[in-house]
Amino acid sequence: MQPTNPHVDITPTGHYEVWIRTLDLVRLQVDIAQNRSPMINTTHKASLPKLYEARAACIYKPDGKCIGMMTPERFHFLRERFHEAQKNRLHRDMSSPVQCLASEIAGLLQDHQARLKTPKASQLTLESYSCILPQHISAALQQCAMVSKEKIASALDFDPGNSSYWSEHHHDIVFGANYNAFAIKFTGFSICHPVFDDTNVLKYVQHSQRGGLGKTPGMLLFSCR
Predict the structure, then answer these.
(1) What does the DSSP assignment read for 133-196?
(2) Are residues 85 and 35 in contact, defined by beta-carbon separation less than 8 angstroms?
(3) Over the stretch 191-217, which tens digit does the pLDDT of each residue have?
(4) Which residues, 6+ apart, have CB-to-CB distance to 8 below 8 Å?
(5) Structure pTM?
(6) Fewest CB within 10 angstroms: 72, 83, 120, 197, which?
(7) What is the DSSP secondary-structure string of 87-99?
(8) CA separation for the pair 80, 105 (Å, rounded)
(9) What whole-number distance in Å separates Cα of residue 221 and Cα of residue 125?
């Protein structure tokens, strides 16, 4: 099978692969993305998208097809956490055998793409799945509010500046995640960056309130996506 997209796909290797490459990507102009106008004439010319080069970690299936991309920095974070979890013997406790790093990252992307197709979810909720808390906000919370834990995150969006993170996806343990923040009491200073879903946000607020009634109360800072 030959690659279907020569700009990003590769010749099949029979294995999952991660390649860091320089790619030509497209950035839409503001008037294209937000203010589309059907009236295009000699005085109002169509705006064309801009091409730009960027370094990206491309994840490939065994057939050579690219199934997604991420920043090289995120790939390096995942690689470090993967090997750290392996060293700490977290992989051996998984119900399904842990595959190679590239295969596990491909699984993360495929699971994320499946969540974007969640039936009956609002468009706002679906869009919030792809929102990451800006790095400068995380850094400010870590420096000024002593935040050191991320209570709701995933392997694709956790902040490596925090000492630990919790995920609702059990398989994220492969990348060093703690599973199910509701199973523990909130202590210390934490950040919660949930998807925009009223039911889930209420659930976390109630859980954090219950945790604050004990002798070692925790502080949970919320940031809506």
Answers:
(1) --HHHHHHHHHHS---EEEEE-TTT--TTSSEEEES-GGGGGGTPEE-GGGS---EEEEE---S
(2) no
(3) 877 777 777 777 777 776 766 555 444
(4) 21, 23, 58, 66, 69
(5) 0.77
(6) 120
(7) HTT-GGG-SS---
(8) 12
(9) 20
